[in-house]
Amino acid sequence: MLTTIAPTAPNNSKLNTRRSQRSRARIMGKVHYLTKAVTGRIINISPIGVALDLQTPIHAAAGSKVRVECDDIGALDGIIRWTHSGRIGIEFDSNSNSAAQITSYFRFFHKEIKPVLKR
């Protein structure tokens, strides 16, 4: 699993901290936004969100509600937190069943993978 260590210096605001550990994955799925659906691959996953590589841009702003559908996990509702160079970060909706689905995925299906290519 990948983790990011919280900064030790209180004034060092440029360090990126994460609220949850994330694991690398290669899961194909679709991101649904309004009437559009874009194919992508989950590249990392955590109990609170996912990052995906998209085949085509989705043209949705941070804060937009989306649904990620994949065969291995099912449908996950969430909110776009960031987009950058064909990648998208989605935080799961805490009011949905996403947390239970992710817990089940990690318990029964997930295998840690190593990246083949790096950007």
Order of helices and strands: EEEEEEH
Mean pLDDT: 80
CATH architectural label of the domain at 23-105: Beta Barrel
What characteristic shape results from the CA principal axes? globular
Q: Over the alpha carbons, how many angstroms does the gyration radius reach?
A: 14 Å
Please identify the structural class as seen in this structure.
mainly beta
Which CATH C-level class of the domain at 23-105 is it? Mainly Beta
Count of discrete alpha- or pi-helical segments spanning 4 or more residues: 1
| Percent helix | under 10%
Strand content: 35-45%
Largest sheet descriptor: 6 strands, antiparallel, barrel
CATH topology of the domain at 23-105: Thrombin, subunit H
CATH superfamily of the domain at 23-105: predicted glycosyltransferase like domains
Strand order of the largest sheet: 1-2-3-6-5-4
Number of strands: 6
Unreliable residue runs: 1-10
Feature tags:
119 residues, mainly beta, Thrombin, subunit H, 9% helix, disordered N terminus
Describe the structure.
This protein is mostly beta strands and 119 residues long. It has a domain of 83 residues: Thrombin, subunit H. It has one helix and six strands, in the order ββββββα. The protein has a six-stranded antiparallel beta barrel. The longest helix is centred in the last third of the chain and has 11 residues. The N terminus is likely disordered.
Give me the secondary-structure topology.
Blueprint: E1 23-33, E2 36-46, E3 49-54, E4 65-70, E5 74-84, E6 87-92, H1 98-108
Antiparallel strand pairs: 1-2, 1-4, 2-3, 3-6, 4-5, 5-6
